[in-house]
Amino acid sequence: MAWKQWAASKRLKPGDGRELQRFRWWQLPLRSLFWLRLPGADGHARLHAVDVRHWARLDNSRIRAHLFLDGRHVAESKLPAAFPVDGGVIEVAMSAYGIRRCHYRPLGGQPRQLTPDPASAEGRRARFGARHPGLSRAIGIGSVVLLVIGVGLNLLQLAEPVSRIPPVTQRVGTFESPVHLPIWLNLALGGGAVLASMERALRLRYSSLLDAAGR
User: Where, by residue number, does the polypeptide cross the bilayer (predicted)?
Assistant: First the structure.
């Protein structure tokens, strides 16, 4: 067993059999819900649901993912989670801005993303993308542009003070940033980068270079 699989199995706990609650509109910023229908061992389709309550932080601020099978709670795990299911595993991970990954990885074949609940924020974003593909694509491109600008400007402005540290100066010399932005513009760009990462999280898009560095 690979180390990641072993670690995920240690985070896994059995469920308590409770019934899955329907998604309510006021839970939009607080909850994510995804669905997956798979054929069971008996040939009948089984409906899986992954329920993640954002900011429901337990065990030293570790958020839990909950797995439901045909509407009943069967397992839970701190994130990142890996739930064994028929024919593969459901992988769930989270970033600082939302769900980073919620995919079914079959034993053979390519992983596929679970379907977000239509009432959830992820589901509403997916429905908007289906209804307005051109505008959705433009928003996605805009999110990437905001993050690239934010990351680039942060690196330029951080390079100058870092280059003045004596050991760094001795090795590479000093660097003077060509960009010095006013505080209000730095704050505006920072806010834009946060919104961009939140928008990408609704589409389960994540880049360690952009989304993590843009924090």
Answer: 134-159, 179-198
- The reported pTM is 0.84
Find the length of the chain.
Answer: 215
CB 90 within 8 A of CB 69: no
Query: What is the separation of C-alpha 39 from the centre of its chain, rounded to a whole number of angstroms?
Result: 27
CB 169 within 8 A of CB 163: yes
Q: How many angstroms separate the CA atoms of 208 and 201, rounded?
A: 12
Q: pLDDT per residue over 96-136, tens digit each?
A: 888 999 999 998 889 999 999 999 999 999 999 999 999 99
Handedness of CA 182, 183, 188, 193 (dihedral sign): positive
158-211, pLDDT tens digit by residue?
Answer: 766 666 676 656 666 666 666 677 888 878 888 888 899 899 999 998 887 776
Exposure of 81 by Cβ count < 10 A (0-12 exposed, 13-18 middle, 19+ buried)? buried
Cα separation of 196 and 23, whole Å?
Answer: 25
